Amino acid sequence: MTLSKSSVRNRLLQAMSEDDFARLAPHLEPVTLSVKQVLVEANEPIEYVHFLEAGLASVVAISPDNERLEVGHIGREGMTGEPILLTVDYTPHQTFIQVAGSGLRIRADDLSAAMEGSPSLKGLLLHWVQVLMIQTAQSALANGRFAIQERLARWLLMCHDRMDGDDLPLTHEFLSLMLGVRRSGVTEALHVLEGVKIVRTSRGRIHLLDRARLEEIAGACYGLPEAEYARLIGLPLKN
Amino acid sequence: MTLSKSSVRNRLLQAMSEDDFARLAPHLEPVTLSVKQVLVEANEPIEYVHFLEAGLASVVAISPDNERLEVGHIGREGMTGEPILLTVDYTPHQTFIQVAGSGLRIRADDLSAAMEGSPSLKGLLLHWVQVLMIQTAQSALANGRFAIQERLARWLLMCHDRMDGDDLPLTHEFLSLMLGVRRSGVTEALHVLEGVKIVRTSRGRIHLLDRARLEEIAGACYGLPEAEYARLIGLPLKN
DNA sequence: TCGGTTCTGTACGAATTCGACCAAGAGAAT
DNA sequence: ATTCTCTTGGTCGAATTCGTACAGAACCGA
User: Fold this and answer.
1) How many CB atoms lie within 10 A of CB A60?
2) Residues B59 and B94: beta-carbon distance below 8 Å
3) Vertex B110 angle, CA B104 and B114, to 5°
4) Which of A185-203 are b and which e, b meaning 16 or more Cβ less than 10 Å from the residue's Cβ?
5) What are the strands, taking DSSP E only, across A22-120?
6) Per-residue pLDDT for A118 more than 80?
7) Which domains does chain B show, CATH number per domain?
8) Touching check for B71 and chain A: CB below 8 Å?
9) Largest CA distance in chain A
10) Is residue B203 a contact partner of residue B214, using CB atoms and an 8 Å limit?
């Protein structure tokens, strides 16, 4: 019994035609995804590509002296392993699970074969690559031109977009890695948000209370990749 | 009389098969490129794609409040207008000429058509997209984790890779825009390099004296995208 | 040659962020 | 209940970078 399109929650799968979905469905395999699980290892061949159904994955760049920084943010609106879409077998970046969830995986070969047979499928997935590029560029802009407060706000918004409720299971330590700042810098910035009741925090979790005001704080730092997603994929990133 | 492959200096054109080159050649049109010329305007349809032969172009992200920052760096190793390769018609980023030069332009439609007819051509150009993505990610990493001195070194190296001599025609003002720092910060960082005789500067020019030591200063900030270029395109980025 | 524009050198205090540290709290494991 | 580990709150001085300002130098066009 193969999957039906109406039962999947991944927005790329939802966005494709019945035909294209039918090409992939026989090869899709449900998997659960646990925190810190590595989906794409740096410099190792990509065997599976994952369409996320729930949870959150990060693409991180790793410098030779082991500095790390998030350069991509993927939830149920997207898929991991984008080099496969560009006929590239591996990448120096690593992709791993930040927030546990589930997904549908497919062998890279099977996906490539399906794309070869369907220009519309290929088009959709290449559009997804474009969204990822714009997202990465936005990260570069954020890191270069915006303060911690704004970057934190952006990150929380991106995370919230991809989660079901308003609870984000994140530690300060973890956020500091993603944002490329020191841990107590995250603590301080979160206290500011908590002080004006935009979030409420407890150990290992951040509860979002007022998304509208968080967007105000993020300001120009947030929104552009999300708008491009809607334009290019044809569905809003967040329900 | 169409172009011959041996006469072009663009490395993507050099890297493709005679067959693929022959598909493009009839549509390629030589153009000179002057400083500040816009090759891809933000949010406007991309009409032409440019294979650079000399000079340098930058892709910049523009935030709603008009902050700007370089997120891509393209010389004769590449081409502009990468959204076309992803079947995307326009992009929120702008691409313009930083260092005057020349190139071969082709109508976006003609390039798309040529790609449709040749998997190998499509593969090569998609590999180029991957290189650009890694470069953008590296910019994000650089902006987030490295100091001005290292970022400046990285930028000078990237520029030098794409120029013919050791003279880089760049103003401090311009570098400050690219790096996302204030102008006098660039002046100070350049003085450091000048003090140890890695560069010599004069109004509007930076003359590179000792590339090896500049690479040492850039450290982990430089090199990864360049290595991926060689791997994926099959030619070294710099001769 | 002159006047205007662009570019560079330099200075100042202010703001941000860092790095390193320690102590207290929360939860998990025994 | 006790111990251990992870997470958070908070501090310190130091380093980096900022914003702004101004003056002189180099270049350009008339």
Assistant:
1) 20
2) yes
3) 100
4) bbeebbeebeeeebbebee
5) 29-33, 38-40, 48-62, 68-74, 94-107
6) yes
7) 5-142 (2.60.120.10), 147-228 (1.10.10.10)
8) yes
9) 55
10) no
Smallest Cα distance from A168 to chain B, Å: 23
pLDDT in tens, A18-57: 999 999 999 999 999 999 999 999 999 999 999 999 999 9
> Average pLDDT for residues A170-188, to the nearest whole number?
96
Sign of CA dihedral A191, A192, A194, A198: negative
Q: Measure the CA–CA gap between B46 and A165, rounded to whole angstroms.
A: 40
Cβ–Cβ of B63/A136 closer than 8 Å? no
The amino acid that residue A91 corresponds to is: T
Q: Which amino acid is at B78?
A: G
> Between A and B, how many CB-CB pairs are < 8 A?
135
pLDDT-derived band at B239 (thresholds 50, 70, 90) equals confident
DSSP state at residue A46: -
pLDDT tens-place string over residues B66-83: 889 999 999 999 999 999
Which of A212, A123, A125, A216 is CA-nearest to residue A166?
A212
What local confidence, expressed as pLDDT, does residue B1 receive?
Answer: 63
Amino acid at B92: P
A134 touches chain B (CB under 8 A): yes
* Partner B contacted by A83 (CB < 8 A): yes
Q: What is the pTM of this model?
A: 0.96
* Confidence bin at A1 (pLDDT 50/70/90): low
Say yes or no: Cβ of A148 under 7 A from any atom of strand C: yes
